[in-house]
TrEMBL record:
A biological process term (GO) from this entry: DNA repair
Stored Gene3D superfamilies: Uracil-DNA glycosylase-like domain
Domain of life of the organism encoding this protein: Archaea
Protein name stated in the entry: Uracil-DNA glycosylase-like domain-containing protein
Residue ranges of domain Uracil-DNA glycosylase-like in the record: 30-159
Keywords, comma-separated and alphabetical: 4Fe-4S, DNA damage, DNA repair, Hydrolase, Iron, Iron-sulfur, Metal-binding
UniProt xrefs under InterPro entries: UDG_Type-4/5, Uracil-DNA_glycosylase-like, Uracil-DNA_glycosylase-like_sf
Ranges that cross the membrane: none
SUPFAM superfamilies: Uracil-DNA glycosylase-like
Region of interest (Disordered), residue spans: 1-23
UniProt biased composition (Polar residues): 1-11
Gene source species: Natrinema versiforme JCM 10478
Record GO terms (molecular function): 4 iron, 4 sulfur cluster binding; deaminated base DNA N-glycosylase activity; metal ion binding
Length: 210
């Protein structure tokens, strides 16, 4: 079943509960891309993965640009870097709102925005979840699999590994600023392998296993 929206940015019209952005910044980096996507890439917040001035996830910052480059290489992205065109891929953050320069979200801030992230994730209903970094990976494994207790939150060992969830396959991605030799190649190879597989069977298999 497909969604009934073709809007690229903020396709479900979410309204953030607060505006603490710096002058000239966007209120939030809203969910962006193909609302009918099979692949859902999940970052942390605009201050580290980008979008404070563009309003688009995975732009501007070193980490965001590197994630975007990997997705370009694997065929999900085309067009300008600051306003990319996504195919079969959707991007958002566990904390979408922009914050004052240098400020990080508190646990309370993440909790305030959890319902927005959860609503969007369930509306997209992708087959493959790709959380980027420790915070996003921890949240996705806790909330959308039954397997968080099986793993230490050790991103080098979780990177590019497939984990069965409750109706999803989860493939964590270590934050690009922490990548070492081979990490970029590992996630590119994993995505290429998934694309070459019958990944749409993930829904049924993961529901039984997770």
């Amino acid at each position: 079943m497909q969604n009934v929206t073709d809007r690229t940015s903020n396709p479900f019209g979410l309204r953030p509960p607060f505006d603490r952005s710096d002058p000239g910044d966007q209120v939030a980096a809203f969910g962006y891309g193909d609302a009918n996507a099979d692949f859902h890439v999940i970052g942390d917040f605009p201050g580290i993965h980008g979008g404070e001035t563009t309003g688009i996830p995975f732009t501007e910052t070193e980490a965001g640009v590197e994630i975007q480059a990997v997705l370009r290489e694997t065929g999900f992205v085309s067009g300008p870097r600051d306003k990319p065109v996504l195919e079969n891929c959707f991007w958002d953050y566990v904390h979408m709102c922009s914050l004052p320069d240098g400020e990080r979200p508190t646990d309370e801030d993440y909790a305030d925005l959890e319902r927005f992230f959860d609503a969007e994730l369930r509306a997209i209903n992708a087959h493959i979840l790709l959380p980027v970094g420790a915070r996003a990976t921890d949240h996705v494994l806790r909330e959308y699999t039954t397997q968080r207790h099986r793993f230490d939150l050790d991103m080098p060992s979780l990177h590019a590994r497939d984990i069965r969830g409750r109706g999803f396959m989860v493939i964590p991605i270590a934050d690009p600023v922490e990548w070492v030799d081979g990490d970029r190649e590992a996630i590119v190879s994993k995505l290429e392998a998934v694309l070459a597989s019958d990944y749409r069977q993930t829904k049924g298999v993961a529901t039984l296993v997770g």
